[in-house]
């Protein structure tokens, strides 16, 4: 004899308390103050005390939220990883090419606020071994997630299969890095616009030959 199912009670979502909101606000203040100083002074020239002074907080407060200065950059990179994770979730539910297009626009979109900040971050990666190691881990994670996206597209016949999904992910990642680095060094024109131009070139070459020919034909007709 089956036991009766236990009664269920709907639990309202927990509200974020004042303390949690305050903690999140302080973390954001530290994060944005740090990025601003990295852009103005450079990563290596910015101290933890500089960051807490700019955020109008005590020096010890910093270490309650970031174990080291390098972890600020890890947070910046983590936002991009989160964007790729969201893209993978979308790709599991629908067509992949629109997801890749939006991902490219979204990733470069997070970089358009300050070319100086990007230059400071690239400089930190080049000159600081712990930061470089953290970047390497993030790149590996991002490439693994993008490989999953390309694998889904290949299984569905949405994109070419003559190149491994991992290789497509690697090449696409290099394109994204190149776009943002080139703009950081010479911020002329629109970064999202450049990303769109690159996507228009890349998309037909990702698709199967038949789909790619149709896409190119439609573009020639529009022009």
Outline the fold blueprint.
Blueprint: H1 18-41, H2 48-54, H3 59-65, H4 70-91, H5 96-109, H6 115-127, H7 129-155, H8 165-185, H9 191-206, H10 209-222
Helix pairs in contact: 1-2, 1-6, 2-3, 4-5, 4-7, 5-9, 6-7, 6-8, 7-8, 8-9, 9-10
How would you portray this structure in words?
This protein is mainly alpha-helical and 223 residues long. The protein has 2 domains: 22-67, Homeodomain-like (Arc Repressor Mutant, subunit A, Orthogonal Bundle); 70-222, Tetracycline Repressor, domain 2 (Orthogonal Bundle). The chain is built from 10 helices and no strands. Residues 1-14 and 215-222 have low confidence and may be disordered.
Defining key terms:
disordered C terminus; 74% helix; 2 domains; Tetracycline Repressor, domain 2; 10 helices
Can you summarize this structure?
With 223 residues, this protein is mainly alpha-helical.
CATH C-level of the largest domain: Mainly Alpha
Shape: elongated
According to CATH, the fold-level topology of the largest domain is Tetracycline Repressor, domain 2
SSE order: HHHHHHHHHH
Mean pLDDT: 82
Q: Helical segment tally?
A: 10
Radius of gyration: 22 Å
């Amino acid at each position: 004899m089956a036991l009766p199912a236990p009664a269920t009670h709907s639990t309202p979502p927990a509200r974020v308390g004042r303390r949690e909101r305050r903690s999140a606000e302080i973390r954001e203040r530290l994060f944005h103050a740090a990025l601003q100083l990295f852009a103005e002074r450079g990563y290596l020239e910015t101290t933890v005390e500089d960051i807490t002074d700019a955020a109008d907080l005590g020096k010890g407060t910093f270490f309650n939220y970031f174990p080291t200065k390098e972890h600020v950059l890890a947070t910046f990179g983590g936002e991009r990883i989160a964007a790729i994770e969201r893209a993978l979730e979308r790709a599991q539910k629908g067509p992949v090419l629109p997801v890749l297009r939006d991902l490219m626009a979204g990733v470069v979109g997070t970089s358009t606020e300050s070319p100086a900040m990007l230059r400071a971050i690239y400089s930190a990666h080049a000159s600081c071994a712990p930061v470089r190691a953290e970047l390497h881990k993030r790149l590996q994670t991002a490439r693994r997630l993008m490989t999953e996206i390309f694998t889904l597209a290949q299984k569905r016949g949405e994109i070419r299969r003559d190149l491994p999904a991992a290789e497509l992910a690697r090449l696409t990642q290099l394109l994204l890095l190149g776009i943002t680095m080139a703009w950081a060094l010479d911020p002329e024109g629109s970064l999202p616009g450049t990303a769109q131009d690159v996507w228009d070139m890349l998309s037909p070459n990702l698709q199967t030959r038949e789909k790619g020919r149709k896409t190119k034909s439609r573009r020639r007709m529009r022009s």
